[in-house]
Amino acid sequence: xxxxxxxxxxxxxxxxxxxxxxxxxxxxxxxxxxxxxxxxxxxxxxxxxxxxxxxxxxxxxxxxxxxxxxxxxxxxxxxxxxxxxxxxxxxxxxxxxxxxxxxxxxxxxxxxxxxxxxxxxxxxxxxxxxxxxxxxxxxxxxxxxxxxxxxxxxxxxxxxxxxxxxxxxxxxxxxxxxxxxxxxxxxxxxxxxxxxxxxxxxxxxxxxxxxxxxxxx
Length: 217
Ligand code: DX5
Ligand code: ZN
Known about the structure:
The chain has helices at 17-22, 47-56, 70-78, 95-105, 151-164, 180-187, 196-199, 204-215; strands at 4-7, 30-35, 61-66, 84-88, 108-113, 131-135, 169-173, 191-194. The protein is of the alpha/beta class. It has a single domain (4-215), classed as TIM Barrel. Strands 1-8-7-6-5-4-3-2 form an 8-stranded parallel β-sheet. Helix 3 packs parallel to helix 4. The longest helix has 14 residues, at 151-164. The chain is globular. The protein starts with a strand and ends with a helix. The mean pLDDT is 98. Bound molecules: D-xylitol-5-phosphate (DX5) and zinc ion.
């Protein structure tokens, strides 16, 4: 089983981002939370900052867009050269058209679901996505507690991915620690975002390896 650990830069020191990015050379991807103060009550980065992060990071970028109108904006974020661009189902008008645009530009397409969003309407659309992000906290802030109530959704997705044989990564984001990662991995996740439990640690390299070990069966 492949386990990917994507540290979230939301928990890094925003005035030293170049140094912070250099602290996680063993990460699989760098998770970058884009927030617009509308879809979520918090504000972070725009395309210019994402482009600069891309320039200084040896680790490719995994963008998580917590913004309104992703149909319009997600392709522009993909143009920065990000490895993957994940947008929220709740905010999009046409999730399939937006995913196809992202793939055309060359980014992996991801669909994110808030804790209260049902997965059923999206189960037949998996072929258009490279990753599904099951939010394990309400989006907006780092440092919140993992919601176990989201695990049945992950199980349903894992079952469908297996049935279809598609190569869709299942990502979890929010409250991931060495304890909760075990439950998420058991439910079928293979891609784990961790903010405070990586950037909040003195030794982020060791923290990443500890999470990776904990996720392996
Ligand atoms: C929350 C963000 C997360 C956040 C996770 O809305 O999407 O990526 O950084 O932070 P932790 O791991 O501290 O819960
Ligand atoms: Zn995120």
